[in-house]
C-alpha cells in the first residue's frame, strides 16, 4: 500500500468528509432512518407476519434478518420493510468457490424467491466472522465479490449492496478514537474488503455494544459514558485533538473511521448493524437504561448529527433486538435485549421517529 504523509491524509479525509456531507444533503440521504434486528433464537416468538405488522405500526421500515428464513423474508417484504439479509457463515465457502453463477443461483433460490430485490437493501455476508468463525475468513471477500457480481448481472448494482458485519474486536486500538487501528491479524482480509466497499459504495458494518463494554470493564467505562450521559453524573469529555467525546457510541464509530483512514479508505461509510441495551440480567440492565440508550440512538439517527469525526454525516443504525430471545447462549443479559414483548406491547417507552 502506498504511504501518504499525515498532512496529506488529513486533507484527503477532510475533503472526503465534505463531499460525503454535501452528497447526503443534496440527495436527501435516508441513512438516518432507524432499523430493528429481528433475531429468531427463541421459543415464544410471534409469527413473522405479526412481527412485520408491529414494525410498520411503529413507523419502522427497516430490519436486519440474521438468516434468510423464507417465511420471514416473505412476511417482511410484503409489509414493505427494507432488509439487511444475513448470509450465513456456513454458506461462505460455497459462495466463494462457486463463482458469480453459483452465487446467482444461491441468491435466486434462497432470497429472491421469497422477497423482491427492491426490498433487499444489503446482504451481510457472514456475521462477526473474524471474531467467532475465522475458519471462514479466507472465503469472506471472494464470497462478497461473487455476490456483487451476481447482483450486477441482474441489474442490481448500486441497489442491493454487499458488506459484512464485524465485532468491535476487529479493532486492535480504539482509545482515543483517533488512534483507532485494525487488528493486524485481520488486515489480510480487511484490506481487500475495504477496497471492495470503496469500489461498490457499501458501508463497513460494525456491531457496537457500549453496554457490554461497561459490563466487562465498569472501572474504565463509566455507566454514564456508555449511556449518553444518563445513569449518573455526566462523565468528563474525552478530549481527542480538536474534538471531544461524551459517549462511547460516537467514540466506537470514530475509532472505526480512524482505522479505515489509516488504511487509505476514509470515504467508506459506517453502518452500525447491531446496538442495544438489555432490560435484565445485570445491575445496569434495566428498562429505564434501555429506554435512555435506545431513545438517544434513535434521536441522533433521525437528526443526522453524525459523529465528532464525521459531523453531519448520518450513521445508519439497527437496534438489537425486536424481542427477547430465550434460546440465546451466554450471559443472562444476552436473552433480554427485546424492545417489544411477545404480545406486541413495548418493554419500555420509546418512539422511532
UniProtKB/TrEMBL annotation:
Stated name of the protein: Uncharacterized protein
Keyword Ribonucleoprotein: no
InterPro entries linked: GH, Glyco_hydro_17, Glyco_hydro_17_plant
Signal peptide: 1-27
Listed Gene3D superfamilies: Glycosidases
A Pfam family that the UniProt record links to this protein: Glyco_hydro_17
Protein family membership: Belongs to the glycosyl hydrolase 17 family.
Key word Glycoprotein present: no
GO MF, any single term: glucan endo-1,3-beta-D-glucosidase activity
Amino acid at each position: 500500500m502506498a504511504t501518504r504523509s499525515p498532512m496529506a491524509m488529513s486533507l484527503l479525509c477532510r475533503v472526503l468528509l465534505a463531499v460525503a456531507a454535501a452528497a447526503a444533503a443534496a440527495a436527501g440521504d435516508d441513512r438516518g432512518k432507524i432499523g430493528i434486528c429481528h433475531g429468531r433464537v427463541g421459543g415464544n416468538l410471534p409469527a413473522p407476519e405479526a412481527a412485520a405488522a408491529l414494525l410498520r405500526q411503529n413507523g419502522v421500515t427497516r430490519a436486519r434478518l440474521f438468516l434468510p428464513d423464507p417465511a420471514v423474508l416473505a412476511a417482511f417484504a410484503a409489509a414493505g420493510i427494507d432488509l439487511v439479509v444475513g448470509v450465513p457463515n456456513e454458506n461462505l465457502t460455497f459462495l466463494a468457490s462457486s463463482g458469480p453463477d453459483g452465487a446467482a443461483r444461491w441468491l435466486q433460490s434462497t432470497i429472491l424467491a421469497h422477497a423482491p430485490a427492491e426490498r433487499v437493501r444489503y446482504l451481510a455476508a457472514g456475521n462477526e466472522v473474524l471474531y467467532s468463525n475465522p475458519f471462514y475468513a479466507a472465503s469472506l471477500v471472494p464470497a462478497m465479490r461473487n455476490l456483487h457480481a451476481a447482483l450486477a448481472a441482474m441489474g442490481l448494482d448500486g441497489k442491493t449492496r454487499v458488506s459484512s458485519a464485524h465485532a468491535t474486536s476487529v479493532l486492535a486500538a480504539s482509545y482515543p478514537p483517533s488512534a483507532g487501528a485494525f487488528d493486524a491479524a485481520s488486515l489480510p482480509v480487511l484490506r481487500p474488503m475495504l477496497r471492495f466497499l470503496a469500489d461498490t459504495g457499501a458501508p463497513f458494518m460494525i456491531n457496537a455494544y457500549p453496554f457490554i463494554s461497561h459490563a466487562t470493564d465498569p472501572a474504565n467505562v463509566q455507566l454514564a459514558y456508555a449511556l449518553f450521559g444518563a445513569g449518573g453524573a455526566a462523565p468528563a469529555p474525552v478530549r481527542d485533538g480538536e474534538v471531544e467525546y461524551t459517549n462511547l457510541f460516537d467514540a466506537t464509530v470514530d475509532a472505526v473511521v480512524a482505522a479505515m483512514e489509516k488504511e487509505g479508505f476514509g470515504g467508506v461509510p459506517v453502518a452500525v448493524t447491531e446496538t442495544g441495551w438489555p432490560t435484565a440480567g445485570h445491575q445496569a440492565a434495566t428498562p429505564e437504561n434501555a429506554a435512555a440508550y435506545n431513545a438517544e440512538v434513535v434521536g441522533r439517527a433521525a437528526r443526522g448529527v453524525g459523529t465528532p469525526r464525521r459531523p453531519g454525516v448520518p450513521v445508519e443504525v439497527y437496534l438489537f433486538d425486536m424481542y427477547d430471545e430465550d434460546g440465546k447462549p451466554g450471559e443472562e443479559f444476552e436473552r433480554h435485549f427485546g424492545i417489544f414483548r411477545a404480545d406486541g406491547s413495548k418493554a419500555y417507552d420509546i418512539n422511532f421517529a
